[in-house]
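Task: encode each sequence below as structure tokens.

Item 1
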Amino acid sequence: MVKLALHPMDRKLLRDLWRMRGQALAIALVAMCGIATLVTMRGSYEALLTAQASYYEHYRFADVFATLKNAPVTLLARVREIPGVNETDGRVVFDASLDVPGLDEPAAGLLVSLPERPGTGLNRVHLRTGRLPEAGSLYEALISEAFSQANNLQPGDTLGAIINGRKEQLHIVGIAISPEFVNEIRGTSFPDNRRFGVMWMAREALAGAMDMRDSFNDLSVVLAPHASEQGVIDALDHLLAPYGSLGAYGRKDQVSHSFIDSELTQVRVSGSIIPGIFLGVAAFLIHNVLLRITSLQRAQIALLKSFGYSSMAVAAHFLKFALLTVMIGAILGIALGEWLGNGLADLYARFYHFPRMDFVLSGFAISVSLLVTALSAFIGAAVAVARVVRMAPAEAMRPEAPAHFRPGPLERLGLQRFMPLAVRVIMRSLERTPAKALLSILGLSLAVSLLIVGQYTFDALDEIIRIQFRTAQRDDVTLAFNEVRDMSAVHAVASLPGVLRVEPYNDVPVKIRFRHRFKKAVLFGLGHSRQLRMVLDENERPIDLPQEGMVLSKKLAETLGAVQGDKLTVESMARQRRTLLLTVARIVDEPIGMFAYMDNAALAKAMEEPETMTGAFVAVDPQQRATLYHALKSVPAVRSINLREATLQSFLSTIAENMRMNTIVIVAFACVIAVGVVYNSARIALSERAVELASLRILGFTRAEVARMLLGEQGLLTLAAIPFGCLLGYGLAALLSELLSQDLFRIPLVISTRTYLFSIGVVLLSAAASGYLVWRKVHKLDLIEVLKTRE
């Protein structure tokens, strides 16, 4: 039988770990949370990135897109001649109003033509189930997976659609997905898979229904390697201008891609900040524990050096303690991170539709996890190891010199006379070890800040909804017409059943230039009397749109580098192309999109054309909503319908599970930090003040009184950490707000009182729980045990 011989120093290491198993476990759990977060975020980032890249490559996702009115297919040959263009695809794409079985409200659909030869073209579909529409079939269609799941539609079902003014029945023959619609969203609203879906039809059938057999109105382009995207976009804008082009744009402005890109940015940023918090706390706990161990084991260190062990060998022993402790946490964290990552990947798979998405624990993620874990151990052990190296054997054999005590600020002010003895003992201890107290406060404040940051994104979402969809937008239904209408359409909409108020709008796609910068955006012309769609100032009060000039959103103004009073060149990309010189009359801050606003009459005057409208905001009588919805399903002039409240509720129900999972994980991890900091600090204080506690017990103090003195210090540190943690949480939220804000959405810096109270409550409860564990140890000690207390 072979026995495994351990080096004497390793046997000592195992004994130290067993004797301090409670504190070592707390450190390991904190490290575990940090590594689990790192593995989850890094793995999810890699999974999303890999799924996206593979999907885009295999299904030929385009690089540049353009929407136009009508162009002959012969124009595609000229597009291919543009330098930098590698491949082109012209399609027929139209909006349609849908009548979905089982859905009272009207839905909106995007009809997209399929290439004549399956497996060719760009932005190809991936068939989930069923078959492709047959050549020559009139109204066979594929429907998007998200739309089919939300409405429980299957191959063989039918739904009504208004196509080119005629109501037709679409026969569902298959369910599909496409890289163009990984996230199905309409404009800058929230996703609503119940009321918006994508349908693919045979090109011959859709082009025939729209009278566009030899034409196309949607262009996709794949660029050649190293081609200039902006150069190709400029060339396309020039070439397509006579055909009603609304302006070409790259992937970064494609709505679905922009959403995924924002998610990737959020995961990458969160995966950098949150693990750093945990590993910083782990390093702090290692620092405290090793300092205490090296103080208790001065004589052992001296003997080891006297027996021939080098300073580096003894220092390596204590470094092993730190490494072994956090590496146990790292291994557990990698396993936990993989489990959490698989759960997050399942959530992503429901929200983003890829052919395949798997969470794979990569060697890179494991290597990075182990590396940063070792780094936190080295940082935490640095001071204690340096002390061991400097410690001379003869000096270490003598007891450590007693600390030099002197009256603190409270004694010098004479305030100690007004304090109970227990409070005086607590305050003296804090005054004599200010560095340790500050580090404990920092550790606990990180727990508070983590909870605040975890809940902040939901506060920001609530604020976006409150400002944009409750205050600025108060309509019940937004109608978009299939073509520009004169103002008489207001009366036609008002005559529909249940309509209480109608406010017209005119959205004009424009290219805005200022000096060397330009941006394609939407210029909204709004009516003079507005109650359903308002533009708000910084105090959330409606502003009057000027009769001269335009109002810009803050993000659009920053992109252009424009300020109030600047004159901008505005080129209309629709209808009659005109170039206007407009003054920036005002800048407003909006959380969604980059828009410009004008009074509709002033816009018509500037465009030198009659006042027109492209849609309407409608207020509806709640008692007649069903009647109105039924009527709207048969109105051929309406291209799409958006129900504000229904869209919001659909989106919130979609992300509810993600919010619940996020809250549970963040709360659990923050509790680990709070318990780890309080428990370790209290256990070290119990060790350091053993003689003092024994003396108090001999003098007649009860166990409860002694425990209050010991734990009161931790309670005071916890209370001191709360305001600092709130400030730190606010600062981290501000950093996230800056890093995560995109063109499509800005993350407002808003933290609710509920979030602050929730974060404070969780930390206080966690601190109380860890204090109870220490109190049990104090309660079990009798006088003799107290006098013998080591660690």
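Item 2
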Amino acid sequence: MPKSPPTPFRPPRRPRLRLLAAALGLALAELAPAGAQQAPEAVAPPTPPQETDALQLTPSLDLAQRLSPAAQMREPLFIWADQLSGQTDIDMNASGNVELRKHSVVFKAERLHYDIAQDAIDAQGDVRVVRDGNVFSGPSLQYNLASGTGQMPQAHYFFNRTQGHGHADVVKFLSHNRVEAKNATYTTCTASPLDWFMQATDLELDSADNTGVAHDGRVVFKGVTILPLPYASFPLSDARKSGFLPPTIGLDSQNGLDYAQPYYWNIAPNYDATLTPRLLQRRGFMGSAELRWLEPSFSGRSFIDYMPSDSAAGGSQRWAGVFQQNGALAPSVSYGLNLQRVSDNNWWQDFGGVDPVIGANRILPQQGQVTWSQPNGSIQASFNQWQTLQNPASPIGVPYNTQPRLYGTWHSDNYTGLQWQLQAEAARFTNSTPGLLSGDRVYINPSISRPFIAPEGFITPKLSFNSTYYSTDTAMANGATTATRNLPTFSLDSGLVFERKTRFFGHDVTQTLEPRLYYVYTPYSNQQYLPNFDSAPLDLNLSTIYVDNVFSGSDRIADANNITGGVTTRFLDNATGAEYARLTLAQRVLLREQRVTLTGPPVPAGLNDSFALASVSLDPRWSANAAIDYNTRLRQLVQAAVGAQWNPDSFRRVSVSYQVQSATATQIPLKYVNTAWQWQLSNRWYSVGQANYSILDKQFNDGLLGFEYNGGCWLARIAVQRNSLSTFTASTRLLFQLELTGFSRLSVIGNPLSAFEQNIPGYQLLNQPTAPPSRYLNYE
């Protein structure tokens, strides 16, 4: 068995210089080899300065890290030592605390011989070489300063960029940028014995293109070889490089053992691809490919997964494809494409963990749009259709396809006085669900308003008119195939702002009191026979309390004679303006019954929805929020959501939310609790998890439970993930990953890091990489 590397090497502090041969350094600057000298160029006499000439300084934000080739030819050389001797233009001998210095490289030794003619050095005794922050040490060194070539036996080395170190039987300097090590080791561990190291018969490092190549190598962890490396090519920085990535082994209840071996192809600086053959125990072979591109006027990515024969599905072909691109056709014209499609309805439950875009989504878009934008508005042409993956055990609604759609909006360019706005759309809607209408819709919605705004409040009257035309492929409920709807709407929005200085839980704050009154009137128009392409109840938030229409979309416009009164109070920090807390209470009153509904009978006049929204964050470490929609008339909680987040320290974060939704004519009952956390248990151990529990079904819908262990120079992650496929079925995956800091992540079973980042809000990466250290970090 190969011997384990010795105790890691760390560069000591620079010894105190005892003798400064400044005159010698200046002399050696003139003693460059003849081949390196340049003939002096003829220089014209300087032009006498004019009276208008003035000294000009050019600022520089940093020092040049590399000398130009011309400057390197005239680069001076300095030598310090306790004793110096030599012959002019021939050689020099130094002994006792020797230090030879040139730009970007330093040599230290007990004894050193410098051959001036050959520009070569022979150093003996405790030799140290510092190049670009990397440190090499050994008993002796032969080195040519001009070519950067040489060798050092029994060498120890420390690489500044990765903070890794190791030793080799011999280190050969092949050039100023290339190094070769024989029988070499590498690790980022600092404690002895080393937890892990890479060992290779031959190790080549090229700092010019930031690549490393290992031959006949292996990775040893805790004394056990975990990864043989007959040949491995790896980057020395975050720069991209073609080559095989660590394999991924998955294990789940749907596919059994899943082995994937990705290959990364760095096609060009702005193009790359990842090709991944994989073998699924219960299904067979699958090939996956990802392509990414970046151009000045567009960027995008594409994915494709293909299984020629699925043994678990009767030998059928299975595939999934994604194409996404955004770009600009002209300075004011942009476009976007998002095309996703799979071969069959069962893809989401069989391969939900394979594709990072499609995942377990059941409604896949095929979307595209071209938009012309101007300061006063925009015009957009688009299409939008969907592939809906159905499951008989848990069917879902099929959304309407919109193909094509032309939409435009334009508004006045003044922010005071009379203002106008115009919205218009023409679209075709199709749906294959039996009983649903398909057809065309055209609408135009002009509006005019006059805001009156002052520091103490505002009042804004507004008048709008909605004109809509329908043409359906089949007859509507009234037997017609065309219909027209014309409805005006008047609204009056008003509010006041009061302020006072006060204290709030020990903070000097400004408290505001902002009462608001909103009136809207829309006459009744029978719309029950019209198709409903895109209308639904509005979600509960601050922007949907004071609105003209309680439905989204354009197919249902509620008749209204309503008043919504509310008040908001906020607590703002006097010094920073940060908002510590906010509370909004509002009540909607129907002055007459609302006859237009999505389903069900008319809504009687009187008190209707009561709203309450609150948020508080007295300290950056925690926050809480709540939103409630309560139907006063029915004495029913329509919907509510409460959440809280606590982040007392790094790697300690907990979030909890509770959501309830009552059964109404337009929504199904829901009641669930969701929690997610990342919590440091000790100096080494961390817990991470996420759980979604349905109180009505009395079961977990989705869940993730994992642990992380920080070994200093390595990390281990293990997790179990459960994804609900229906009310009665679910898939379970086991995930395990070993990360060797500064070297590689080995996803032995699945990819727990990806699961943590997707499911844990605010997840923090352990041993977060920072910017590459400066080459002056180990400056001596």
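Check on item 2: Helices lie at 22-29, 69-73, 347-350, 752-759. The chain has a mean pLDDT of 86.
End of task.
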